[in-house]
């Protein structure tokens, strides 16, 4: 923010359209979350992958589909996670042409630290909003928006959607 500028007050915020309010709230949370994840050696995309791999090993293409990103985007995310020692790749015993991605012990610990950090550091304390109520409303909102959107292939998405975080 430039010197002399002030952040909008509650009265001004109340005049904003809902879409703008959602975008600003998302940006503020994302900025906090990006900082916390960087301390843990993670990115948003990496955390989503670790969350999904907690359910068991998956093929890269299945991960990309579940995260609603391209195969190339998933490949870059997995390379970063592999360098950090958070995931390992191994041949699929059912199909030797395919490789499965699995979370490592270090990946499980990183995921657990991120979950704790989200609970402890990225919260709604001081807002007067109950976390469980907001979560319920956000799930309802996102579900409704997904139902209303036209079908799109993952190739056209930037990776900001998807499962988990």
TrEMBL record:
InterPro entries: HTH_MarR-typ, MarR/SlyA-like, WH-like_DNA-bd_sf, WH_DNA-bd_sf. Residues 145-165 are annotated as: Disordered. Residues 15-147 form the HTH marR-type domain. GO terms for molecular function: DNA-binding transcription factor activity. It comes from the Bacteria. GO terms for biological process: response to stress. It holds the Pfam family MarR_2. SMART domains: HTH_MARR. This is Winged helix-turn-helix transcriptional regulator. It comes from Amycolatopsis dendrobii.
